[in-house]
Structures are given as C-alpha cells and as structure tokens.
Design brief:
507 residues; 4-stranded antiparallel β-sheet; Jelly Rolls; 44% helix; alpha+beta; globular; 13 strands; ADP-ribosylglycohydrolase fold
C-alpha cells in the first residue's frame, strides 16, 4: 500500500472514531423514521411542558432560588388554561414556529428577508430584543441590522436563545448545519453573546438526537461557541462547577450568581436591579437543569425553574433538549395527556403542536439528505458533524454603565441631564387615551444642542420602540442631554422612568 493510501486510511479511521464515540458510548447515527419523529415530537412537547411548568414563577424570583419547601405542582389542564387566556406565555413557541412555517414555504435555503418578513407580519406580543427588532424592521432597517447591538440595546437578551430550538430540531446530529440556520435567523434580533445563546441551544438539540449522555451534549455543543466569547466563559464555568459540586445544584447556582448574576450590561431593564434577562445567566440555568437532571425530564425542568429569573423560558429549553433525547413516548404519562388536549390548537397565529412536529420532521429528513446522510423507507442514517466554532462577534465592547437616574413619571417636559461618557438610554413609554392608534410621537434628543436623533414613537403597542431613546456611540465627552416633543397631541403623554448614561471601560 502506498504511503498516500496509508495516510488516507488513517485519516478515515480517525474520522470514523471521532464521529462514533462519545464519553457515554457510541453515538446513535442510525434510527427508524418512527424513532426520529418521536424525538421531534418530544422536542416540541418538552418546550411546551417546560414553559407551562415554569410559567407561574416567571421573573418572580430574582437573584434567588425557589426553595424546595415551595410546591411547584403540575396543574391538570394548565396548558389549555394558558391557551384560553390568550397564549402569550408561549412566545418561546410561536416565534419558533414562525420560522418553521417560513422554511416550509421557502425551503431549506430560505433567505433572511423571508424570515424577517414572516416575523414582521405576525401581530403576536413581543418584548425586549424581539420587539426592538420588529420596530427596527418597521423603520426600514435590514434584517441583519435589526439585531446589531448599536441598533438594539437588547441584543444580548435571551430572545433568540428561546426561539432557536427549531434550528437544532431540524438538524439531527448536524451541529454545524444548525449554526448555519441560526445565522440566517438569529441576527434579526440578536448579536454576539445574544446570538450565541441560540446557537448553543440549537447545538444541544442537534446532539440530543444522537447521544443519551447529557454531559456530552452540554460539553460537545459548547464547541460551537468561540472560546473567546463571554457566553462560552459562563457556560464553561457552569460545567466546571458541576464537576466540583456534582451532588448539589444549589452550590453550583451560588457560584453562577456570584460571578454572573449582576446584569449591568447590556439590557437597560437589568441595570441596578436583580432582574436578569441576559443570555449568560439564563443559559447557565438551562444547562444547570440538564446537568443535574441527569436525563430525568421532571427533575430537569424543576431545577431550571427553581433557578429563578426567566423561569418559564429556561425549563422550556432544557425540557425540549432532554425530551429530544428521550423521545415523546418516554415522557411521563400525565404530561402526554395534557399535550393531547391542545395537540391541534394553533399557537398564536402560527401552527399547532402536531403540525409543527410534522413540519420539523419533514425538514429534518431533508437536512439529513443534504448533510450526506441517507433516508430510506424505514430508516435514516445521519452523517454526524463534529462541532466547529462560529465566528467571533463582540457586542457592547468597552461599554459600561456610568449612572442611573430614577425618574418619577416625567411628562412632556424632560429636564436636562448632565453626564460624561459616550451615550445614554431613556426608558419610558408613550401612552394615550382617545388618541388615534396610528399616532407616532416625535421626540428630538440633543447632546449639547446637537440633534442626535428624532425618535419616532408609535402609540400602537405591537409597533412600539422598547426604549424612548438609546445611543452609546458618541465621542467620549461631557454632555447635557435635552429632549423636545415636537408634535404633542391632546390625551397623549410621554412617561419617562429611568435615564441611564454610559461611559467606556478605559475611562
């Protein structure tokens, strides 16, 4: 045998070994179509169940855990109850399903403009990064600009982290393919670490198809995140603390809180208060549930819920991932009974649980074939992808909070604010009674008498700007910020809650 042939054989053998072995044993790269569909169905059910379980405590426990003495009983008929109440709890699901619908309509290579158009066309309630992205798109920004941190102060919030599930569900064992899908969608509302939260979740879903080893899934998926990123550092810390305290998740939680619990950057809503909607700490609570849940569905979602903060979204993610690993039929019977009650009910102007499962299954078959695997009448063979790190993105670089001024409902006349730094955020809202819904207030913001922006503030809730004003890219200097409402109308008021000023790390 020639040297070249020997080298090729060795390379091939190494590749086969790398693709076939995990710390928990061999990867399962072949399965029946029935088993694949069961995992897809489990993925969507796990999200819905986890979200429902944690819904009653969402943002009720900030920088503290939910004690074991507090009962989190599963409520029979709970999912149906949330549906009947409007379904707003399930933003994790209905935004996710919007992208599934887009792929069904436009194909696996659906352009980002198609995803953005579908996202924009829905009138369901949104908040934080998603709502700012909707506003940006309405103002004519491109889809990739809509989530960029200079245009979206919520770019590090967890919005894409909770709606990237679909990208992993459609990419069994193919992490890099899932990342490509994330690139087409995630930058509509996120950038940098905010985007990495979604990439990481999607990667864990992809791996949950082919491994029953939760620690392998959590650790291997992290290879898709650049090691230089803040998000990677946080997740690596959690994995390390899990190894240090393998029998007590609360000790691990304490370490997360000490190092990562402060949320001064970047979401303005978390400055100076315990509220934390960043990807870092909430992503940590996802894998906290996965690692300490050890493959048990109920234990997984309970821990991710009891960790606090966004306690419906985090168990939705951990529940979806572990239910992908288990498959729908292995979920506890009491949960499956609940799913059957709403199986055909559409989620907030999208599709139902069953229809979403069917579409994702179809997309997964297409992706398997595209990825070099095979699909026959009964079985699929997955061409496993070794995770490669996504490109490095850094948002809010060298930016830090200067001060926060708490305001008691300033109306119409916003007094001058002096600061030294690079920019500011004005938190507040336009409100009005008996004012036409299509009214758009215009607020001029000046730095040292220089007009920085004319902020267009729609009264319509679903079209609102999440903050009245934000800009932190000015040259460092001393500023007096003043505002002028140029088109006030009877019955409308601009309410200001907080003003946050920003400086740079170097100063």
């Amino acid at each position: 045998m020639k040297i070249r042939d020997v080298l090729l054989f060795v390379a091939f053998f190494i590749a086969i070994c790398a693709c076939s072995i995990s710390p928990g044993g061999k990867l399962k790269l072949a399965m029946s179509q029935e088993a694949l569909f069961d995992k897809v169905k489990g993925a969507w059910a796990g999200q819905i169940l986890g979200c429902t379980y944690g819904g009653p405590t969402e943002f009720q426990y900030l920088s503290t855990t939910i004690a074991d003495t507090i009962s989190l009983d599963w409520e029979a008929g709970g999912i149906q109850k949330w549906f009947d109440g409007g379904g707003g709890l399930y933003d994790d699901i209905y935004v996710d399903l919007t992208f599934v619908e887009t792929i069904e309509r436009c194909g696996l290579d659906a352009p980002v403009d198609s995803f953005a158009a579908a996202f924009l066309a829905k009138e369901y309630p949104l908040c934080h990064a998603n709502q700012q992205a909707r506003y940006n798109l309405l103002q004519g920004l491109s889809p990739h600009a809509a989530g960029y941190w200079k245009n979206n102060p919520h770019a590090n919030c967890l919005d894409f982290q909770i709606e990237a599930d679909f990208a992993g569900i459609m990419s069994p064992g193919m992490v890099n393919s899932a990342v490509t899908v994330c690139d087409s969608v995630g930058h509509i509302m996120a950038y940098g670490d905010g985007w990495y939260g979604g990439v990481y979740v999607a990667a864990m879903y992809a791996l949950a198809y082919v491994s029953d080893d939760v620690e392998f899934i959590v650790t291997e998926a992290l290879k898709a995140i650049p090691a230089e990123s803040r998000f990677h550092a946080c997740m690596a810390d959690v994995i390390g603390w899990y190894k240090q305290y393998p029998d007590d998740w609360r000790l691990c939680w304490n370490e997360i809180e000490k190092k990562w619990g402060t949320a001064d950057m970047a979401c303005p809503d978390g400055v100076g208060v315990p509220f934390n909607i960043e990807t870092y700490v909430n992503g940590a609570y996802i894998i906290l549930g996965l690692l300490y849940g050890q493959g048990d569905f109920e234990k997984t979602i309970d821990i991710s819920t009891r960790a606090g903060q966004d306690s419906d979204c985090n168990p939705a993610s951990s529940g979806g991932i572990v239910a992908t690993m288990l498959g729908y039929e292995r979920l506890p019977e009491k949960y499956k009974k609940e799913m059957e009650l709403i199986a055909d009910r559409p989620f907030n102007n999208t599709v139902s649980f069953l229809r979403g499962s069917e579409l994702s299954f179809s997309h997964a078959l297409e992706m398997i074939k595209r990825g070099g695997g095979t699909v026959d009448s009964n079985e699929v063979h997955i061409n496993y992808q070794i995770p490669e790190p996504a490109r490095l993105e850094v948002g809010f670089e060298n930016l830090k909070v200067d001060k926060k001024v708490v305001v008691d409902n300033w109306v119409r006349n916003i007094p001058p604010v002096e600061f030294e730094g690079v920019g500011a955020v004005i938190k507040g809202a336009l409100q009005g009674e008996q004012v036409p819904e299509d009214y758009v207030a215009e607020l001029e913001v000046y730095f040292n008498d220089r007009l920085v922006e004319v902020c267009k503030l729609p009264l319509k809730y679903n079209h609102r700007k999440h903050e009245l004003f934000f800009n932190y890219v000015q040259p460092y200097g001393k500023y007096v910020m003043t505002c002028k409402w140029v088109n006030p109308v009877q019955g409308a008021d601009i309410w200001v809650r907080d003003i946050i000023t920003y400086t740079t790390v170097e100063k």
